[in-house]
Amino acid sequence: TGEVARLESTTPALSITPAPGGFSLTWDFPGALLEEAPTVTGPWTPVEPAASPHLISATGTERYFRLVAP
What we know:
mainly beta
């Protein structure tokens, strides 16, 4: 009685917004690893160093990004 359960998300959310010269990737999930790939199916490689916010340039090359939970 009187107890409240708090559920934590185990899926990190990645946001992208326009920034001068490119885009800003942001997330609020400590320890999450940012990865990028040339296609949505991979191969995925770590982006190092990557901390939120992470700026990426608009190169004209298609790239995909994802977060991997620790």
